[in-house]
Amino acid sequence: MSGPRSPGRSSGARPPYSQPADSRRPYGAHRFDVFSIKAGRRLTLYGRAALNLWIHLEMDPAVTNLCERPLVLQDGKPRRIIDFWARGNGADRLILLVRDFDSEPKVRQNGADQLTAFRIWAADVGCTVEEVSASEDEGYALDNLMILLQYCSSYQSTLTDSILHRASQALVESMPVARLIEALGGAKGNEDADDVLRAAAYDLVRRGRAKIPQLESTRLHDGLEIAPI
After folding, report:
1. Are 153 and 35 in contact (CB under 8 A)?
2. Closest CA to 54 of 131, 203, 22, 44
């Protein structure tokens, strides 16, 4: 990279970012199309590691906005793409997934030189640069969080402040998700209504107001305990 003049689409590519700088599919990568509540649009992600990182960012209550593949490091070989920009707690982060091929000696040296220049540019525009080890599989936790996010995004338009307030008020102690749904007026046989209330319970988790301690150890179901934070 010949200095920090052109890390992305243009020399003025500064945060915030709203669209990916490069949407081309990497060779052999699996494609995932998801809806991001925090970005307010659909994202196209490539590879399970990128999907997993997005899930963590989407579930982090401190993150208020994000964008996938916001910048391209133009110079250097191989050409590299910053995987995510995330904003939260008044700070901007540019996150790069470190994959297996990054450990090859030539790639590692080129990448180090490239990142040194990029870090200087990022600091100048008020961003930190984070390198995160690529994780392809994290067991139940990621699958459960993906289901939770699907509920939250599917019913986002119906999750009013009133419903969320009622859910928060009803969750005075640890209880099964099913009991919280019942406390909110859920009725057996009305699956659509129960799904909205289930989404309200899950949205409390997404917002950092509640937790489901067993998310990492067993599959998500209504018998799991949800507790206020």
Report:
1. yes
2. 44
In angstroms and rounded to an integer, the radius of gyration of the C-alpha atoms of the chain is 20
Domain end, chosen from 90, 118, 133, is at 133
Residue 138 predicted with pLDDT over 70 = no
Q: For the chain, how many structural domains are there in total?
A: 2
- What is the mean predicted confidence (pLDDT) over 169-183? 97
User: What distance in Å separates the CA atoms of residue 74 and residue 94, rounded to the nearest whole number?
Assistant: 16
* CA 12 to centroid of chain Cα atoms: 26
10 Å CB burial of residue 114 (0-12, 13-18, 19+) is buried
Q: In 3-state terms, the chain is what percent helix, strand and coil (to 5)?
A: 40, 25, 35
Neighbours of 111 (CB within 10 A): 24
Residue range 159-173: mean pLDDT, rounded: 96
Torsion angle of C-alpha atoms 57, 62, 68, 72, degrees rounded to 10: -120
* Phi, psi of 28, rounded to the nearest 5 degrees: 80, 0
State whether 114 and 157 are in the same domain: no
Same domain, residue pair 41 and 85 = yes
Alpha helices in the chain (DSSP H): 48-59, 105-124, 140-154, 161-170, 177-183, 191-206
Entry pTM: 0.86
Give pairs for 186-193: CB < 8 Å, separation 24+.
none
